[in-house]
């Protein structure tokens, strides 16, 4: 959903034409898979990082347009809210010093962008949900100016026919209603891309689905929303609810949600694109002039723009991506479960753990997804989002187990093995996976640090929740810029 679109009026004929074009595109995609037109030996990875903007007091800053102008770099773009930005990290081969280079480049890019942001009264924050955000900050008037968000908002609410209900039950409770998708902008994440061959796609996607709960438990960084303490990774349930096109009646009928874990292990990437067209009405039925079959018949690679746009409005936690680069089509798995932050070191460590573990699981003699049900993988995700590193997750061979024991005893060695297979420098692999190990041993994720720091501030100073969150956010920003991993952060002043 990264492309720009103009304001549109959508007719019934537009929808019929779009559905026909989607079906033709799917037929062309199937032929491309059969004829093996894709890059067969890909080895690149990439990242997208979403961030928040705050003012000098740590409160939301609605100035992403001003900040983008002073950054003046096409790698940076808007996100849904005026207090959001995103940086797209160029793809690279995952070998040698790639992870160390990535960490250094990200630190340089974010430090430069933060300096530019300060010139217009803002600062950048990498966090899953901005702790100081209030309900008054997320409404249609604080949506980014890009027309695609306005159109998407209109179409989601036209499909739903009523206000969104957001209900989250944690240590505290939240129940609210909204008439725009802007609460979704509270969710800021890191997306990890892996380019894979068609033959390897299903194994990579299945492996990513199997470990989604582990990833979320390990990286939880979103415990507060609208001044309430909710899940350790509240972002998961908020995103599911804030973009739901279904009123209660359609939920009862079993209509699939657009933020979707899925319902089965797959055998081909085709399964996912076929499900998209079978289950989900188009939100943005915009047809391009390209005739994909004609393009394919003359020996070129079609863009399949309609199929890609439709796919971009279905928010799988692991999403398939089709793209054409330099005339060659390729496929990617886009992993979307991780929150942003707390530091670049933590972010790159999370990426190293993911890339290494998926590599090891996809090449295992007995695939993990043949040993656990798909429903169990989905339950693991929500258990992890609720409880972070205190979660108990199911894993084949050990049953329900504390997630920290699962990571330390079983998954970290696999991730190390996978990074070896990628050809990552062993020193970098040890350092980054050491961050994961220490996070498990200390039990301190970004979420745990936020919760404990707010409790300490409240106990020592007696301030109310909103002020405690503001002070905590200021400390968070200071620690974030040291690039010291979150497991080392003190909770006391």
Please tally the helical runs, counting DSSP H or I stretches of 4 or more residues: 17
Main sheet attributes: strand count, strand direction, barrel closure? 7 strands, antiparallel
User: What is the terminal-to-terminal distance?
Assistant: 42 Å
Which structural class do you get from the secondary structure elements?
A: alpha+beta
Morphology call: globular
Beta fraction of the residues? 15-25%
Spatial extent as radius of gyration:
22 Å
Uncertain spans, ≥5 residues at pLDDT below 50? 1-5
Mean pLDDT score: 95
Helicity range: 40-55%
Tally the beta strands.
15
Task: Record the SSE blueprint.
Elements: H1 12-34, E1 44-54, H2 64-71, E2 76-78, E3 84-93, H3 98-118, E4 123-125, H4 147-160, E5 164-169, E6 173-178, E7 189-196, H5 198-210, H6 212-219, E8 224-225, E9 228-229, H7 234-242, H8 248-252, E10 259-260, H9 269-279, H10 292-297, H11 305-311, E11 315-316, E12 318-325, E13 328-339, H12 344-362, H13 374-387, E14 392-395, E15 399-402, H14 403-422, H15 426-442, H16 446-461, H17 465-482
Helix pairs in contact: 1-9, 2-3, 3-12, 5-12, 6-13, 12-14, 12-15, 14-15, 16-17
């Amino acid at each position: 959903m990264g492309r720009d679109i103009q304001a549109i009026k959508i007719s019934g004929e537009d929808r019929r034409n779009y559905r026909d074009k989607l079906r033709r595109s799917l037929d062309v995609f199937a032929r491309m898979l059969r004829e093996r037109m894709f890059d067969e030996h890909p080895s690149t990875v990439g990242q997208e990082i979403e961030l928040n903007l705050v003012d000098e007091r740590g409160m939301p800053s609605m100035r992403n347009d001003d900040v983008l102008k002073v950054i003046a770099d096409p790698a940076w773009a808007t996100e849904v809210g005026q207090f959001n930005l995103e940086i797209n990290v160029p793809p690279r081969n995952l070998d040698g010093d790639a992870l160390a280079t990535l960490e250094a480049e990200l630190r340089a890019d974010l430090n430069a962008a933060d300096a530019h942001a300060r010139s217009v009264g803002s600062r950048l924050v990498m966090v899953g949900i901005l702790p100081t955000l209030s309900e008054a900050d997320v409404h249609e008037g604080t949506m980014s100016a890009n027309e695609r968000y306005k159109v998407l908002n209109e179409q989601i609410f036209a499909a739903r026919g009523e206000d969104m209900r957001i209900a989250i039950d944690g240590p505290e409770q939240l129940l609210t209603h909204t008439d725009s998708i802007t609460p979704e902008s509270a969710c800021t994440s890191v997306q990890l891309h892996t380019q894979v061959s068609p033959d390897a796609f299903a194994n990579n996607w299945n492996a990513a689905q199997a470990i989604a709960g582990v990833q979320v438990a390990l990286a939880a960084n979103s415990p507060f929303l609208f001044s309430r303490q909710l899940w350790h990774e509240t972002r998961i349930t908020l995103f599911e609810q804030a973009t739901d096109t279904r009123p209660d009646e359609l939920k009862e009928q079993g209509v699939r949600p657009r933020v979707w874990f899925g319902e089965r292990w797959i055998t081909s990437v085709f399964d996912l694109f076929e499900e998209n067209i079978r289950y989900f009405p188009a939100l943005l039925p915009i047809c391009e002039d390209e005739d994909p079959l004609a393009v394919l018949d003359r020996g070129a690679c079609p863009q399949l723009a309609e199929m890609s746009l439709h796919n971009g409005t279905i928010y799988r936690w692991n999403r398939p991506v089709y793209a054409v680069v330099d005339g060659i089509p390729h496929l990617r798995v886009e992993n979307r479960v991780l929150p942003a932050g707390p530091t670049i070191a933590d972010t790159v460590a999370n990426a190293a753990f993911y890339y290494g573990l998926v590599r090891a699981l996809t090449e295992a003699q007995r695939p993990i997804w043949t040993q656990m049900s798909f429903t169990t993988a989905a339950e693991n995700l929500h258990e992890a989002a609720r409880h972070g590193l205190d979660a108990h997750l199911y894993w084949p061979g050990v049953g329900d187990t504390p997630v920290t024991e699962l990571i330390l005893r079983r998954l970290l060695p696999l991730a190390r093995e996978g990074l070896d297979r990628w050809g990552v420098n062993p020193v970098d692999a040890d350092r980054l996976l050491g961050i994961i190990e220490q996070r498990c041993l200390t039990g301190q994720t970004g979420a745990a640090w936020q919760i404990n720091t707010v409790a300490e501030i409240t106990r020592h100073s007696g301030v109310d929740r909103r002020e405690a969150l503001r002070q905590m956010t200021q400390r968070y920003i200071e620690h974030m810029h040291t690039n010291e991993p979150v497991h080392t952060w003190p909770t006391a002043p």
